Write the structure tokens for this entry.
Amino acid sequence: MSLDFAHIEKTSLLDFPGEVASTLFTVGCNFRCPFCYNRSLVIPEELPPQRISPEQALTELSKRKAYVKAAVITGGEPTIHPDLPWFIESLKKEGIKLKLDTNGTNPEMLKELYSNELLDYIAMDIKSSLDHYNEAAGVSVNIADIKESTQIIRASGVPYEFRTTVVPGLHDLDKIEAIGKWLEGAEHYILQPFFPKGSTIDKEYAAKKPFEDKALRAMADTAGPYFRKVELREYY
């Protein structure tokens, strides 16, 4: 699948810590997380027919770089697109800082991006504990790739965050503790509550109620001893 974008959010104050950024949403994903509300970026039959080409995106961001000096590439899953490194390199040549959101399924591309110094920040979604990953991702996952990506990110020297969207029925304190033991010593771990928006991939999840604050705080407390910083993020 060639790199295209479904949408560009011209200005975001939330997606890239410390930066005013434009957020670009790639089309296509290799996961089918049942709670995902971005069906139109994931399900092949529902992908938007009108898309933004990489060239159009570069033109748009170049025009605005005097006051928006950073970009976030999210999805979908950006790393399924072989031409992603070229696009990121083109942005960097314009002096634009780059944050990448990824599910960690393409460690070889992460190596390429890091070796060419193309990333300023990365956020990797941690779907669940290793023994429950397939359930949360909605597909059979190569766990070796996931583990390798976390190791690459931690060793990179580039700021990063690991984050888990916590969903009733998929996550509990035991799974959060298992994640902590797996990633013990990592710099920054974020818990973000699932909020049903629009049409989820598994439509039953659209009716699920998010965790209450007490349960979220208990998860953050459980994760706390394992990470240098644990954050409970209230937006998703």
